[in-house]
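Data card: per-record layout.
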Amino acid sequence: MMREALFQFRKAHGLPEDGGVSRKWAKMKFGPVVFPMPNTKGRKRSLLYHDIHHIVTGYKGVLRGETRIGAWEVASGCGDHYSAWMYNLWALALGLFLYPRATYEAFIRGRHSTNLYGGARTEDELLNSSVEAVAESLSLSTKDNRVTASDGLAFVGWSLVAMVTLLVPPMLIVGVVLILVNIV
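The structure for this 184-residue chain is written out next.
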């Protein structure tokens, strides 16, 4: 059952049983570097789906797996889960640098499947389903991952968006600091 798989996934990755939903701060880990960030309502809303996506895709909760799940979730769409869009775009951008082939393959896989961000099922329905049934409902067992021209264009387009999303915030911070240094 998904409930047990989720418990095992979180335990294996050192996560709390609730995935961290009850915490005020989240820890984003990229290799040995840990970034604390506010655990927003939007992040909490997406967390269960994100963790289940790790389970049904087989992408581990480590740096390589996070870049892959980010690419997969961007390609399959995050709907109105705006926090998920942001985190996944960052993961996609990092994946382009660190694991380009795996990131590309995960993106293409996402283009040919769906995900849980549509919210058609309740938490209980998901947790009481089998892992296989959830994976099947997301078309993850489909072997037809032929790359189309629109897949390639989507990958290039989303990669550009991801790079801008990753690079603009630090550039804004540097710009503000430079302005403040020149003012003071």
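Known properties of this structure: DSSP finds eight helices and two strands in the chain. The chain has a mean pLDDT of 91.

See the next section for split statistics.
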